[in-house]
Amino acid sequence: MPESAPQEIRAYFEKALNEGSLMTAAAGDTETMSCPAVAVVLQTSYQGLAQMRHRGTGPKFAKLGRKVIYRRADVLAFLEANTVQRTASHSD
Questions:
Q1: What is the span of the domain harbouring residue 36?
Q2: pTM score of the predicted model
Q3: Using CA of residue 57, residue 88, residue 85, residue 15, what is the dihedral sign?
Q4: What pLDDT is attached to residue 61?
Q5: pLDDT at 29
Q6: Does the residue 71 lie in any domain?
Q7: CB 39: neighbour CB atoms within 10 A?
Q8: Residue 34 domain-assigned (yes or no)
Q9: Strand order across the beta sheet in which 67-71 lies
Q10: Residue 58 CB neighbour total at 10 angstroms
Q11: What is the rounded CA–CA span in Å between residue 41 and residue 27?
Q12: Number of domains in the chain
């Protein structure tokens, strides 16, 4: 993945949030995202996101009864924590 990819993902994410296409309303002024929106941002399927929740490998989430929501800050933190510059470990 090129070094610019994390910035491109963040720019896409910020643009979509500013347009209101990925946000849903929750209690108070906390910005939250639905499962389909998070799946789009993470470039996975709805089922793939469900597997990430089950395995504990995805972003933090909250359950309101049967409904699953994600805080925008937690999705951004997940993207930051999983940003890498390269996959191989070379000695230069």
A1: 5-81
A2: 0.63
A3: negative
A4: 96
A5: 47
A6: yes
A7: 19
A8: yes
A9: 23-25, 31-34, 67-71, 62-64
A10: 22
A11: 23
A12: 1
